[in-house]
Amino acid sequence: MLSPDLARIRSFEVVPSLPEPLKPLLDIAYNLWWSWHPEAVELFIRLDRNLWHETHHNPVKLLGMVPQQTLDTFSRDEGYISSLARVQENLQRHMTRTPWLQSTEHRDAKDFTIAYFCAEFGLTECLQVYSGGLGCLAGDHLKSAAELGLPFVAVGLLYRNGYFQQYLNADGWQQEYYPELDLANLPLRPVSDSKGNQVKVTVDLPGRVVHIGLWLVKVGRIPLYLLDTNLPENEEDDRGITSQLYGGDMETRIKQEIVLGIGGVRALEAINIRPDVCHMNEGHSAFLALERVRRLIEEHDLSFDEARQAGAASNVFTTHTPVPAGIDRFPPDMVDRYFRSYVPGLRLDMEGLFALGRENVFNKHEFFSMAVLAIRTSSWANGVSKLHGKISRHMWQGIWPQVPESEIPIKHVTNGVHARSWLSSELMYLLDRYLGARWQNNPADQSVWKAVMEMPEEELWRLHERRRQKLVIWARRRLRKQFEARNINPDHIAAAADALDPMALTIGFARRFATYKRGNLFLRDPDRLMRLLSDADRPVQFIFAGKAHPADGGGKELIRQIVKFARESDAGHKIVFLENYDINVARYLVQGCDLWLNTPRRGMEASGTSGMKAAMNGVLNCSIMDGWWDEAAEPDLGWSIGRGEEYSNPAAADDLESRAFYDLLEQEIVPLFYNRDSQGIPRQWVTRMKKCIASLAPGFNTNRMVQEYAEKLYLPALRRGRDLTADKLKKSVELAHQKVRLRGAWGKLRVDMVQAKTEQAMGVRDALPVTATVYLGELQPDEVKVQAYTGPLDTAGRIVGGKPVTLKHDKSLGKGKHRFTGEINAINSGRYGFAIRIVPGDEIFDITPEPGLIHWEGVKSKPAAAEAVVAEAEQAAT
Ligand SMILES: *Cc1c(COP(=O)(O)O)cnc(C)c1O
Fold first, then answer.
1. What tens digit of pLDDT does each residue of 537-579 get?
2. Which residues form the DUF3417 domain (predicted)?
């Protein structure tokens, strides 16, 4: 073998050569639009069904492998050519459809670009640059943004070895391996400049420069740029930076995040894209906020804070983590090594940078948190379900000292899933028949889905039974392959053919195996479980799938327990574990199971999306009240385990909640499923399926989600960003200076006197006049708002769910003293209270309160330590 050290190897590319009439297939193959259009997928399957499976559903590779003779035959097949023309036309229509914004009140928002950054993208099974929920959400986000025609670009990393592939050894212990992606045969291409060379950018790492190449994946009308450091000009180690997703150590992670955040901004710049809004989907990409500010400083000769206002105004940060342990954090000495030469460009010193990434800036040992960095550099933040929004406001309230939890500026946009990617094609055709084309074009419209209730029950049920049978047949094949690969004895391998019953109530559980998701909860009472499994008349079976993170021994142990139980009980054929969970496995499961099980510890699941995929297909959910289910659950859509209780003792919770699950199965789920009429149809079950689709599909899809992102976050960020950036960042500079002025005066603010007749009870619709005399020092009355923060009192005398009433400036009393007056209205009877506070006056602070700028009567204001350190750092750096 000739080794590269000995000889210069010249590489060249071989591309599929298609007969002229089939050439359009290439355009379709290189646009992932095909992945959510069954009629496009059908074109590839027709060429060669086996190759389709062999290539793991990769049309580019398939086109390169189909024998010439087959291609020639199809190029003369009129039926095929006319199908091809139809698909090509559909793709064309997608590319040119009138954008959704044009039909809204926001049609004046023009000529802008939103850049979406994420560490992983789950778009289709053959492009393995995703691990699970976060990636699938990002993929679905892009597909919906494409359908809506938003001006969107996306940035991610091209992991040459993807996420690990999973198999289990004979003991059920997870094993991992990382096959290399064959880039030349995937639906992506290098981004080339006018001379045909790949576009490259660089970032600095300690003592060296790292080169980054750009690749393009087309997702309908949206470009996704993937960054790759595996270039010959890089040192060996650096070539591996983008090798594995979530694979390396912390050092690898910080390098990846520098490439994604800083390299990502530079990559867009290199192809002349200067985004107006940047969306950090999770904190991995948060370094982008620094790079955007650095560019502004460089171009306009500003201080960090002068440029930061404009940068933050147009950054959106989405957090997906309800637990502190889930956040990326780096040790201070590591951050120091990687950013020492970068901070001068920010006109900060290292202390200033650390202040942006620490919750408690005085703790020199505190790790640098990417979530904190993202929060401190974005004016717009959100969690991913209603409950998660609340949990996030609680979790991050320390960043805004003395601000009531309900006013912490983290909103929520509940996740969704991309309807056409997850619905079975059978159900799509049924929906087309009964709902018309509207459900495809506007799945977020509630009224479109009402007609689901009119669909004949027989038809829906037969369709669903076919999906379950497909699932069982496919699962048996997969099991057989699993067993063969493990070299298990031939009897065992043969048994795969008898695994599962195509007619039995099938319960699916597929997700990452993390301990908090409690994949083994159903095993808690083995005797009770065995009774359910071995009921000959009303059988129940379980299908599991999911990977544990390579470093998560606890998660791997859960998998082992399930496999061991299945092996050692008589129920082996009724509990199966399918290896290597991915989008393809997910699709089979969420379309073919009857019941979708989810058992996280409450508060730990930010949203969860597989249950939405199931619901859309009429698969009923049975879940703990957590994440999305907490806001979706209604009695006749599925089942809830518990009512949202929180337990301090985990073992007690496991006992109670597993018991509640068995109770539901025995008393409600199994009887309902097996209650058949003379035609063999479980009418009440099917009615639930219909209600489930009709009421959950319109809300929990990504078209609704992306529209909400646009209206709540992207467009406001666009407007505010433009406002602050105009005229060489005039307003951004002013705002920075105003903050300095407010901070300087804030410590001297005082509420001297408050007058209100609170001794007498007032009637429900009466108004309570309030007068406050305050000392503002050198601040003018229009620079602040004096507010009565009012609401009902709890038993401890605290205001709950308070709302501010802004008082009017009534009179200047001289020497910095002012009188403000207003009225409080009580809406309901009960005990109420109010407290006088002072906050900054400009409305920009209404959306994003500024840390440290809130003064409550009788309380010493807590200055924002991080802001003070940043200000000092600016001084030190000039
Ligand atoms: C949908 C999906 C997930 C996320 O499911 P959760 O319910 O959020 O855990 C993970 N992995 C794959 C392959 C998926 O399709």
1. 999 999 999 999 999 999 999 999 999 999 898 888 999 999 9
2. 18-127
- Our answer on whether the CB atom of 460 is closer than 6 Å to any ligand 1 atom is no
Residues 85 and 179 in one domain: no
Q: Which atom of ligand 1 is nearest to the CA of 585?
A: 13
CATH of residue 305's domain is 3.40.50.2000
Residue 774 Cα to ligand 1 midpoint, Å, equals: 54
Q: Is residue 430 part of a domain?
A: no
Q: Do both 145 and 50 map to the same domain?
A: no
Residues 643 and 511 in one domain: yes
CA distances from residue 590 to 430, 464, 492, 596 in whole angstroms, order as listed: 17, 11, 27, 8
Distance in angstroms (rounded) separating the CA atoms of residues 686 and 44? 34
Q: Is the CB of 511 under 6 A from ligand 1?
A: yes
Q: How many domains does the chain have?
A: 4
- Can you say how many angstroms the Cα of residue 539 is from the centroid of all Cα atoms in its chain? 36
Query: Which residue type does 60 have?
Result: V
- Compute the distance from residue 610 Cα to the ligand 1 centre, in Å: 5
Is the model's pLDDT at 439 over the cut of 60? yes
Residue 819: which pLDDT band, with cuts at 50, 70 and 90?
very high
Ligand 1 atom, smallest distance to 511 CA: 9
Residue 853, domain CATH: 2.60.40
Contact in structure between 99 and 114 (CB atoms under 8 Å): no
Task: Please state, in angstroms and rounded to a whole number, the distance separating the CA atoms of residues 212 and 566.
Answer: 47
Find the 136 Cα to ligand 1 centroid distance in Å: 7
Check whether residue 395 and residue 303 sit in a common domain.
Answer: yes
Give me the chain's average pLDDT, please: 94
